[in-house]
């Protein structure tokens, strides 16, 4: 049977003792089932819980060895992955073995194959187990599109396109939301890059590497949805940012984007690469099953894209002062911490204490003044809806 093991923390960060209790429960279940190794399934670096997660690198191998689709890792390594997921440090995956499945859900609940004995053990550890028919992320429920294998025909076509239209840009998605970028100026570059690609990576070939700033600005304006700006220096990808036109300003002595760059759409519906394929395994068989189901973070991003400057929203102050403002839970199923109210936007009137204008739990009505896709939140202003000092009520 499948157990959904609640941690009692809802959408807040799981405490360390809860993380260790879950790891102990899952480790015990796996050991009793004779599991010594687990297979990593559909890993992603971020984007399951949120696109602005805490840094994960101190918690996983620097080269991400063992964190790719189909990787077989020792159970102890799998439990490390589980701890990282429970701490919401960014990465997510399913861990599988014969008759065994475990992963973290979107509310700090753990879905794991178990028995009545395991259910009782979970309660002993202070957890909250419930029997369910299946996990909402059961592999059988995955939406998997048809995939072209990156075989010899794909690489021949890629080299031909580079020879005729280069330089081009190869996107390597080695895990979901984890990308490397490879400029291809000559067919020789294609051969060299091919040898460096990660197992089961998704590949996309993009046009548009150019130093023409007007061409890049025009590409940004054609697509209102979020896009990535990828720039290259000395034959290597030097940087990636969410694209904004100010980045292309060449008036500074040291411009932010010093060389060739390309604009690449982020939203799936906008993505139309020249070629796309998935790397087969070493024996030539395509086994990767890249799921395209929307995660909660994908749905949250879609919600943020519906907000525009000037929109009026309501919500509840969710936190005390965080650096220069407070986080706001907007009145929407995906609105948790989706608003940010900075101190200067709280009121026209002088105030001495935050409790005077934005205490935790206060319902507010505010205007959207900016949607920041890099930080995944909407900047709000309460005072924009108040009579200003030079306006009559």
Automatic annotation (TrEMBL):
Pfam families membership: S1 (PF00575)
PROSITE patterns: S1 (PS50126)
SUPFAM superfamilies membership: Nucleic acid-binding proteins
Domain of life: Bacteria
Gene3D superfamilies referenced in this protein's UniProt entry, alphabetically: Nucleic acid-binding proteins
GO molecular function, one term: nucleic acid binding
Chain ranges of the S1 motif domain: 310-383
Protein name per the record: S1 motif domain-containing protein
């Amino acid at each position: 049977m499948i157990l959904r093991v609640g941690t009692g923390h809802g959408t807040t960060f799981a405490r360390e003792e809860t993380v260790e209790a879950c790891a102990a429960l899952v480790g015990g279940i796996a050991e009793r089932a004779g599991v010594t190794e687990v297979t990593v399934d559909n890993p992603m670096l971020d984007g399951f819980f949120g696109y602005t997660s805490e840094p994960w690198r101190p918690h996983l191998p620097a080269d991400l060895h063992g964190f790719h689709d189909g990787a077989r890792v020792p159970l102890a390594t799998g439990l490390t992955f589980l701890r990282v997921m429970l701490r919401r440090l960014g990465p997510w995956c399913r861990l599988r073995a014969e008759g065994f499945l475990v992963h973290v859900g979107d509310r700090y609940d753990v879905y794991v194959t178990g028995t009545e004995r395991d259910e009782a053990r979970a309660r002993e550890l202070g957890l909250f187990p419930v029997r369910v028919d299946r996990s909402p992320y059961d592999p059988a429920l995955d939406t998997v599109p048809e995939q072209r294998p990156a075989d010899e025909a794909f690489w021949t076509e890629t080299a031909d396109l580079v020879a005729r239209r280069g330089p081009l840009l190869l996107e390597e998605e080695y895990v979901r939301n984890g990308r490397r970028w490879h400029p291809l100026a000559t067919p020789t570059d294609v051969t060299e890059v091919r040898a460096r690609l990660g197992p089961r990576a998704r590949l996309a070939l993009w046009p548009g590497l150019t130093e023409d700033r007007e061409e890049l600005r025009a590409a940004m304006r054609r697509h209102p949805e979020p896009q990535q700006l990828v720039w290259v220096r000395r034959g290597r990808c030097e940087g990636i940012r969410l694209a904004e036109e100010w980045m292309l300003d060449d008036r500074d002595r040291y411009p932010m984007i010093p060389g060739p760059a390309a604009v690449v759409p982020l939203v799936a519906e906008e993505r139309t690469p020249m070629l796309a394929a998935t790397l087969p395994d070493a024996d030539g068989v395509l086994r990767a099953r890249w799921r395209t189901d929307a995660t909660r973070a994908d749905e949250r991003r879609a919600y943020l894209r519906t907000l525009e400057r000037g929109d009026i929203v309501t919500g509840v102050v969710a936190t005390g002062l965080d650096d220069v403002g407070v986080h706001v839970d907007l009145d929407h199923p995906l609105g948790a911490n989706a608003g940010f109210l900075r101190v200067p936007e709280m009121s026209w009137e002088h105030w001495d204490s935050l409790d005077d204008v934005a205490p935790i739990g206060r319902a507010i009505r505010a205007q959207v003044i900016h949607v920041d896709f890099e930080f995944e939140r909407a900047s709000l202003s309460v005072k924009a809806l108040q009579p200003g000092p030079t306006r009559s009520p």
